[in-house]
């Protein structure tokens, strides 16, 4: 197989509307719009939000609302979900919400769907109630969603208005072999959460490609990989900025979440040996460094995986440094 060149890659943004220390979700939303407008100018293809709940440092819980906010403040970049956790919602409601978004911003809305709750079990129970085991119905719920979007549903007793007959691309998101098999069977594009769950990435995308069945939506398999990126003008500065995301992941593995902290000169004393091992494992597909370092490491990654698209998430404390990181990454891919 011929190796893909970086200039051939599609590149996009995943935003968790991360809340940094000393600020509020309102500040995060303003920064998200600023970043989306910046990304649009830099040639990024899509800007997605991830649905999470009951996390003090992640403010993207009302995902559909944020998508509308960003789409309304931009002109050409695609905006969508990475993803909507479908078992948290009735498929009809999601069809109506995204039908409304696609009616307001035609040709610009993506709908990525995940099976996980996007939160802890207690919060999932509060969200789902009697539908706590809805994740078992995920494949059927994706099909129901497709039915609501279909123009052939016009004579059904239950219809999605707006939503019916609209062209809203559906993606399957995941971090396991199950999601790979489902995306392959349904002939849908596959987005893998390699930014925090890298363990099964290589085997999952092989399963997806080997078992892909062409559909009316997609003729050939399409793999998107989400990765962590902290780019700066020098390796030293990038490594310092990256200590914020390293501290973020310490909070994930220890259960002691905090608002995104400022960078530190050294992680020594900020994590235990076991916390470092766990955080490093979750950050296996993280690219920290100068333009030269990012370029070399990313080309190695693309050579190994042959992904079609990279989606960048960057937990960087300083907003200006975050904008600069996305700028450097775009410059690297453009060559």
Automatic annotation (TrEMBL):
<dbReference type="InterPro" id="IPR011251">
    <property type="entry name" value="Luciferase-like_dom"/>
</dbReference>
<dbReference type="InterPro" id="IPR050766">
    <property type="entry name" value="Bact_Lucif_Oxidored"/>
</dbReference>
<feature type="domain" description="Luciferase-like">
    <location>
        <begin position="21"/>
        <end position="303"/>
    </location>
</feature>
<dbReference type="InterPro" id="IPR036661">
    <property type="entry name" value="Luciferase-like_sf"/>
</dbReference>
<dbReference type="GO" id="GO:0005829">
    <property type="term" value="C:cytosol"/>
</dbReference>
<comment type="similarity">
    <text>To bacterial alkanal monooxygenase alpha and beta chains.</text>
</comment>
<protein>
    <recommendedName>
        <fullName>Luciferase-like monooxygenase</fullName>
    </recommendedName>
</protein>
<dbReference type="Pfam" id="PF00296">
    <property type="entry name" value="Bac_luciferase"/>
</dbReference>
<dbReference type="GO" id="GO:0016705">
    <property type="term" value="F:oxidoreductase activity, acting on paired donors, with incorporation or reduction of molecular oxygen"/>
</dbReference>
<dbReference type="InterPro" id="IPR019949">
    <property type="entry name" value="CmoO-like"/>
</dbReference>
<keyword id="KW-0560">Oxidoreductase</keyword>
